[in-house]
Amino acid sequence: MAMPLLRKPFRFKRQSRLHRMSRFEKAVVVLLVLFSAFMLLPLVYIFNHALKPYEELFIYPPTIWARSPSLQNFVELFNITSDSVIPVTRYIFNSLTVAVLSVITVTGVSALCAYPLSKHKFPGYKLVFATIMLTLLFAPETVTIPRYLVVSNLGIMNTYWGHILPMVAVPVGVFLMKQFIDQIPNELLESARLDGAREFTVFLRIVVPVILPAVATIGIISFQTAWGNVETSNLFMQDEQMKTFPFFISSLTSNMANNVARQGAAAAAALFMFIPNLIIFLVFQSKVIATMAHSGIK
Amino acid sequence: MSEINAQALKKPSATGEAALRTKGKASELLREIWRFRLSYLFIAPFMVCFVLFILIPVASAFLLSFMTYNSLEPPRFVGWANFRYMISEDLLFLKYALPNTFKFAIIAGPCGYIAAFLLAWLITILPATLRKWFALAMYSPSLMGGIAMTIVWLPMLSGDRIGYLNSFLLEWGFISDPVLWVTSKEHLMSSMIVVTLWSSMGIGFLAMMAGILNVNPELYEAGRLDGIKSRLEEIWYITIPSMKPQMLFGAVMAIVGTFKAGSIGTELSGMNPTPQYSGHLIMNQIDDYGFIRFELGYASALSVFLLLLMYLSNKFCWGLFGSKGDE
Predict the structure, then answer these.
(1) 3-class secondary structure per residue, B73-97
(2) How confident is residue B100, by pLDDT bands cut at 50, 70 and 90?
(3) Residue A63 in 3-state DSSP?
(4) Least CA distance to B115: which residue of chain A?
(5) How far is A248 from chain B (nearest CA, A)?
(6) Is residue A62 part of a domain?
(7) Residue A30 lies inside a defined structural domain of this protein
(8) Whole domain around residue B26: which residue ranges?
(9) Where, if anywhere, are coiled coils annotated (chain A) (predicted)?
(10) In chain A, residues 101-130 whose CB comes closer than 8 Å to chain B
């Protein structure tokens, strides 16, 4: 039964096996639908919550579907800050700036670092990689205090640098990219070098196009991190003008557990946080799966 | 600081190269050095940030953990005093933070991990078109992320009868009074665990899914010839062994994710500290000492303890899934 090609029999066989086990497959589908319902139910709720007009939030028994959907909550979200100095748009602008800049720097810096680690074998590369792997096991969040001291000594408090720089070094990013670059045959790079391409050209013209799935994945991850990040606003920004949208939401929600009053606006804000992540993930989903195939730690 | 580091990295390359290539042509030598210098230039931006925001903080956390420091007076060396205080006198830590963290990590970590693997496996059984949508459904809670994640659960877990869960249970007669899901000490921890499990199909889940899809199908064929009958045997003897690296990656992500959790309790209950410390985790204790009491030395000792916990759990998983060089 051995076939010369690897990809084709793979698909063919999977499907034929599914035909044989269609009852099993049906059971799996039912199980997964149930699980998906559990996963998606809160999202359905929040979506409807965000669209409910004010009166409907207090109805008992609570309804799942908004009866007369309105954008009132979104309007309220934007109006909450109307009498304070800093409008909500400022937080959103900060968040967008930080998110976009960190996606660019994180992907760029990680790719730049992963390439020599994978292909150059420069003296000390093993030590560098081992250190990065070791810190993969640590969460930098746990050492907030020394991080705070570093940031304050660098004098980047209350600047966009304070949002971005602490987030640039993402060990997972370098790790995933390095695993991906490992797949590129050395001959390909060598032939380009023989043609007179300089190292940076090799990197830009050959390595980057091949590792685009990994770049997309790291981009998504860093976007999600930056877009939802409260930590840097909490710790490194005293200036209210420099804080980000998630921080604004967290100030909205404090002491809200048993208080329905602002739940509508909070739901609208949550939806506002969710939609960009969802869109970006949908666009790049297949790339993410392709990258994760190389994520193994050996 | 960063420049010193770059210098230190550059030096051995030059001397090492020189030692190796003394017989080689001078031009070749120059080219080699030039090439490696470029390598260091490539890794420099990452390494600068890495050293500044990860290595130095971790190292100074270790140093500070042996000192008292209140950010005003210069730090003073106190030896093991912080750690002695931690394991003998800090009642908040011993009575709440430590047991809570263990309870939280032991339930949320492995359960989330196993669920992620099983769901990934179930999804890969399906044809590709369905697969994509189920994967999205499982991953979407992770897309919520951070602060938004708790907002999603607030209307569900509201303590009055307007909360979805309460109204559902009241209607069906399971409870007679609304339950304070997030503001009572009895239920906060369970709510925290459920919400964490809900959002645990993250990057580790995607990695394991990709790993399962990448298992060489010929292995299954061979396994069937060798007498593997059920799908369970197939998972145990073929799928897991051939995707050990991805399993390990998923485990690392799960461990780091659960141990660094801290804000979820305060965000869900809307109180800091959480009601009667029922959701008090080590991370909360660190923030408490670091940013409220300004005992930075002791807070660092707590972070060092947490880092060691993470490291040991990871070592344990390494033992389970690490390859012994036979691949």
Answers:
(1) CCCEECCCHHHHHHHHCCHHHHHHH
(2) very high
(3) coil
(4) A35
(5) 10
(6) no
(7) no
(8) 2-64
(9) none
(10) 108-110, 112-113, 115-117, 120, 122-125, 128
